[in-house]
Amino acid sequence: MKQLYITCLDLEGVLVPEVWINVAQKTGIEKLKLTTRDIPDYHELMRLRLKIVEEHGLTLKAIQEVIGQLQPFEGALEFLIWLKQRSQVVILSDTFAEFAKPLMEKLGMPTLFCHNLTVEPGLGKILDYHLRIEDPKRKAVKAFKDLNFKTIAAGDSFNDVSMLEEADHGIFFRPPAAIAAQFPQYPVVQDYQAFKAELSKHLPEPW
């Protein structure tokens, strides 16, 4: 039986800029620059973000307006086209469906697994966040392995480590040096050409 492959990519930091950092820059709210690179516990990070959003009266619409102005990293779309010729591709992200659509459209609408927000009707106030499942990235990769896919996972931060551990092959894309040093077992790439070269060690030729 022919081996099937699936590549699981993080979204922010790998294909597009960090949403919350850009919201922080637009609004001047410095604490919104914190990401999972700074606070590994996702629940702690999101509770902090929601508290800040409430304190400053930021609505979903205001955040969506910032997101709508973001562009994928240069070369990201071409990279995805290259990858889809060699592997199934799924984006495993800790973003939210309410944030992601404009970015997905600019990336050619790849498959995305992410989370959801509860928003107050009419007012656009963000009330809460809901994970699809605990430890979703690891569990998604495990499920793909159970479906007999050879799995590759790539990300840039602490919240990606669980899927790198679970995958047959894990790769860091532009991680902070401290995170890369903490997990030296994973190769580090800094651009899409190097990313392609590393992936090519594990993926078949184009279909």
Automatic annotation (TrEMBL):
Reaction equations catalysed: O-phospho-D-serine + H2O = D-serine + phosphate; O-phospho-L-serine + H2O = L-serine + phosphate
Active site located where? 10 (nucleophile), 12 (proton donor)
Q: Which residues of the sequence carry a binding annotation for Mg(2+)?
A: 10, 12, 156
The answer to whether keyword Metal-binding applies is yes
Does the record's keyword annotation contain Magnesium? yes
Cofactor dependency:
Mg(2+)
Q: Which domain of life is it from?
A: Bacteria
User: Where is it found, in Gene Ontology cellular component terms?
Assistant: cytoplasm
Q: PANTHER family, per this entry?
A: PHOSPHOSERINE PHOSPHATASE (PTHR43344:SF2)
From the Swiss-Prot or TrEMBL record, give the protein name.
phosphoserine phosphatase
Lineage here is: Bacteria, Pseudomonadati, Pseudomonadota, Candidatus Lambdaproteobacteria
